[in-house]
Amino acid sequence: MFKHVLIATALAGSVVGGAAASDSPYLTGREQLMMLADDNPAELTEWRGEDLYHEPRGPRNVSLEQCDFGLGPGVLEGAYVQMPRYFEDTGRVMDLESRIIHCMKTLQGFTEEDDPVARKHSSDTREADLVAIYTYVAAQSNGMAWNPPMDHPMERLTRDAGEVLFHRRAGSMDFGCVSCHSEPRKRIRLSFLPVTSNQEEWSKAISWPAYRIGHGVVRSSQHRVRGCYYQMRQAGVKFGSDASIAILSYWTDQARGGEATLPDLKR
C-alpha cells in the first residue's frame, strides 16, 4: 500500500500547490516523496533504538547512556551533525556507527563475534541493533545544520583523504563518486542525482539514516558508501575503515550549513 501511494504521488507531477517546487529536479522529486514523511517507518526503528540505548546489555550489563559521541557522555542533541570527528580515547576520526560499536565494546563488553556488533546491516527485513541505535542517536540532531569539526589535524587530513577518494576514478567502469555527483540533472533511470555544489541537494542526499522504500528497512551512511562502491564496480569498502570514514568526512563537510533530515525517507 505504501509503495502504491508513493507511485501515485510521483505521477502527480512536479508541481506542488500550483507552483514548481524547485528548479532542481532532485529536490522536486524529494518534495513529492516527503509528502509521506509523516508516516515514515523509520520512526519504529528509532523507537527500538531508544530502548536499546537505555537498556542494560552485554556481559557488563550496562546501557550506552555514558557513551561520548563528542559532546560529552550521554549528550546526544547535536552530536551526529558534528561527526565524523577526532576522539582522543581512540586516537582516530570516527563516524557515528563506528563510535557506537566502540561503546558497545568498551562499556557493555560485547566482542566482534557477538551478534549486536557482528551484524552491521541486514539483508532482510530484520534491522540490526546497530542500525536501530544509530537511528535513535542521529534523530536527536534532526533539523540541525551539518557542522563537522575541522579543528584537529586528523579531522582535516581525513576530510582531504575523502576528497581524493571521492574524485578517484577506478574499477572496470572507470567510475568515481564524482561521476554521478559533479554535474546537475544527471540521473540513473528515473532518479535524478544530487550534486555537491548544491548545498540544499547535498544536505538532503547525505541525510542518513533513512528508510529505503525499495529495501523495506532503514539504511545507514556506511551502507550507502558500500552500495555506491558496488554500483561503481570498485572494490568494496570495509565497514568502519579509515577510507569509509574519510568519504563520510568529505561528504559531510560539503553539506556544511545545510539542514539535516533525520531519519530521512528515500526511495
Automatic annotation (TrEMBL):
Record's catalysed reaction(s): L-cysteinyl-[SoxY protein] + thiosulfate + 2 Fe(III)-[cytochrome c] = S-sulfosulfanyl-L-cysteinyl-[SoxY protein] + 2 Fe(II)-[cytochrome c] + 2 H(+); S-sulfanyl-L-cysteinyl-[SoxY protein] + thiosulfate + 2 Fe(III)-[cytochrome c] = S-(2-sulfodisulfanyl)-L-cysteinyl-[SoxY protein] + 2 Fe(II)-[cytochrome c] + 2 H(+)
Gene Ontology cellular component terms for the protein in this record: cytochrome complex; periplasmic space
Annotated keywords: Electron transport, Heme, Iron, Metal-binding, Periplasm, Signal, Transferase, Transport
Subcellular location(s) of the protein: Periplasm
Signal peptide, first to last residue: 1-21
GO biological process: sulfur oxidation
Keyword Iron: yes
Domain Cytochrome c intervals: 48-145
EC code: 2.8.5.2
UniProt-recorded Gene Ontology molecular function terms: electron transfer activity; heme binding; metal ion binding; oxidoreductase activity, acting on a sulfur group of donors, cytochrome as acceptor; transferase activity
Family: Belongs to the SoxA family.
Assembly with partners or alone: Heterodimer of SoxA and SoxX.
NCBIfam families for the chain: thiosulf_SoxA (TIGR04484)
Record protein name field: L-cysteine S-thiosulfotransferase subunit SoxA
Organism from which the protein derives: Ectothiorhodospira haloalkaliphila
